Amino acid sequence: MGKITVFESLTLDGVMQAPGRPDEDTRGGFAYGGWAVPYADSVQASMAGEGMATTAGLLLGRRTYEDFYAVWPNQTGNPYTEWLNNAQKYVASTTLKEPLPWQNSTLLKGDVAEAVTALKAQSNMDIVVLGSGELVQTLMRHNLVDHYQLLIHPLILGSGRRLFREHGTFLALQLVETKVTTSGVVIATYQPSPSVAG
Amino acid sequence: MKKLVVGTFLTLDGVMQAPGDPQEDTEGGFVHGGWQMPYFDADAGKLMGEQMAATDALLLGRVTYEIFAGYWPNAPEDDPMAQRLNSMPKYVWSTVLARIKWNNAMLMKGDIEEEVNKLKRQPGSGMLAVIGSGELVRSLMRHGLVDEYKLWVHPLVIGSGKRLFGEGVGPLHLTLVDAQTTTSGIAVLTYQPVAQA
Q1: What is the rounded CA–CA span in Å between residue A152 and residue A178?
Q2: Which residues are paired to A148 by β-bridges?
Q3: Which contiguous run of DSSP H or E holds residue A193?
Q4: Among A147, B12, B25, B132, which residue has the fewest nearby CB atoms (within 10 Å)?
């Protein structure tokens, strides 16, 4: 049975929009894109390295997939490009058509929750979800997330798209681990609470 | 100068509404009141006791004041938390209350910045603690009066309810000064504002 980890950079007020670059996602007039960059450090890098070593697949929403494809394949001098190119990428989209442009990409067809359930059942692959806010809502609603790895950054933005939205799903979780980076990012790992997940 | 510390129970999605009791605050049809109780273990009790011992006075908004004043004066007398809360000075901000009756509670009417700075300059080394009181916290934040945040992040996502950090609060850069966890999975995170250049 494959496991799904949702890996997200968040502000203290729960914003997940555009952590990496100013032009990453300016929807709603969001002006703080790139807010996570100053906090990157060796603790976070080694954690990302461990993640890449143990994870073979990516599950992405359409928007994050297109953004990653526009940025990463042409970068050099970083540990991520090769991994992203080689990783098996599963893409949830109702508008994209096959063939997808990036190597090792598979379009999930039909109902996303059903497709992800099947994906988990047919492999032992550990799959990570990055960004992909809309997709994560669906996965949470259908109890398809096995781990949440939340990188909680020490700032409050007061605007922007949040990971956990109004009218969202009720989730009882269990704190598995916390790590603190040199820049004050709290990396908290949660899994669904067994008493409730039943 | 006394330090003004905001201490808040939060869910992972930032909700602060009604942590202690189902009837505490049902505004907006909130049905998850009391969500905090299953997580309040010995670790949490010890941390809370340490915080209360280091607190000289409480600053409260109207909603939290009414909840506290309705509960603590009638709590068992041998409850150390009740003894502490009932006896310490409480400064209450409200535009609607005409008078207040909890022991050692004062209704504050003046300019918040001026009044809070006066309280900070009072003798003594204990903290001024704000508990709950979302509206008051946001007002204190806007005036740059918060010296420390102690956020008790509980391992659950509720999906509705009043949040501590609403839209429009920020941007605010903080420094993480301490992180602890309880056995029940509460992450108690302490932050201080980054000094403005």
Answers
A1: 10
A2: A6, A190
A3: none
A4: A147
Q: What is the pLDDT of residues A46-66, one digit of tens each?
A: 999 999 998 989 999 999 999
Q: Which residues 165-184 in chain B show a CB within 8 A of chain A?
A: 165-176, 179, 181
Q: Is A172 in Cβ contact with B14 (below 8 Å)? A: no
d(CA A28, CA A18): 12
Total-model pTM? 0.95
Beta strand pairing status for B90-93 and B148-154? unpaired
- The three-class DSSP label of residue B62 is helix
What are the percentages of helix, strand and coil residues in chain B, rounded to 5? 30, 30, 45
The H or E element containing residue A113 is helix A112-122
What residue type is assigned to position A57 of the chain? G
Q: Do B173 and A154 touch (CB under 8 A)?
A: yes
Note whether B187 contacts A175, CB cutoff 8 Å: yes
Q: DSSP H helical segments within chain B, as ranges?
A: 42-53, 62-71, 80-87, 112-120, 134-142
Which ipTM value was assigned to this complex? Answer: 0.94
Q: Token digits for A102?
A: 């990036």
A159 touches chain B (CB under 8 A): yes
**Residue B29 DSSP class:** G
Distance from CA of B117 to the nearest CA of A (A): 24
Amino acid letter for position A29: G
